[in-house]
């Protein structure tokens, strides 16, 4: 190799390195502080005799990038997770657990371990799918890549389970069913319809 070609070779290598680094950086979209998982709780809906029962899980994040692994903190350094929240249901009370932060003691009932990642599509920063497994105070909450989720309160079988999707906004919480009128309201409605029918019959005669 001639000496005159060395600078060109180095220049090409440098440009190629910059392009690769730029592509890697561009693939990690910035993420807001909160990501939400809006889901249906199937066992809750059965208990409420409803078509669906909405629940919400929320991740509070710190400098997280889509596609990166979720990391718990420790006494020496912060991770990219601040807290995890589950809205609870008609069967369970709301739950919030905190991650370890640098220089602080382990929070009571805090996150003992967390793993997974959240992905985004072409229309970022809206999340598209993700995996999550978080352990805290003898409990476990899991979300699979296909949106199936489950909550375990220290048991082999899930206490809550269902299917959901990731979002930038929190959905509603509670039962999704037809609102049935109270017995008194139903009786008044029936009487009103009866009187109306009798009047129509008399006019026809």
Largest sheet: 10 strands, antiparallel
User: Distance between the terminal alpha carbons, to the nearest Å?
Assistant: 112 Å
Percent range for helical residues? 10-25%
Number of strands: 10
Average of per-residue pLDDT values:
82
Percent strand equals 25-35%
What ranges have pLDDT less than 50 throughout 5 or more consecutive residues?
A: 18-27, 188-193
Strand-and-helix sequence, N→C? HEHEEEEEEEEEH
Gyration radius, in Å: 27 Å
Please give the oligomerization state of what you see: single chain
Number of domains: 1
Shape, per Cα inertia axes: globular
Structural class: alpha+beta
Q: Output the number of helix runs.
A: 3
In short:
With 205 residues, this protein is α+β, with helices and mostly antiparallel strands. It has helices at 5-26, 42-47, 183-204; strands at 34-41, 52-61, 81-86, 95-98, 111-120, 127-136, 139-143, 148-152, 160-167, 174-176. It is built from 3 helices and 10 strands, in the order αβαβββββββββα.
Descriptive terms for the model:
single chain; 205 residues; alpha+beta; 10-stranded antiparallel sheet; 10 strands
Task: Give your account of this protein's structure.
With 205 residues, the protein is an alpha+beta fold. The protein has one domain. The chain is 24% helix and 34% strand. The protein contains three helices and ten strands. Strands 1, 2, 3, 4, 5, 6, 7, 8, 9 and 10 form a ten-stranded antiparallel β-sheet that branches. It is globular. The protein starts with a helix and ends with a helix.
Write the SSE topology.
Elements: H1 5-26, E1 34-41, H2 42-47, E2 52-61, E3 81-86, E4 95-98, E5 111-120, E6 127-136, E7 139-143, E8 148-152, E9 160-167, E10 174-176, H3 183-204
Antiparallel strand pairs: 1-2, 1-9, 2-3, 2-10, 3-4, 5-6, 6-7, 7-8, 8-9
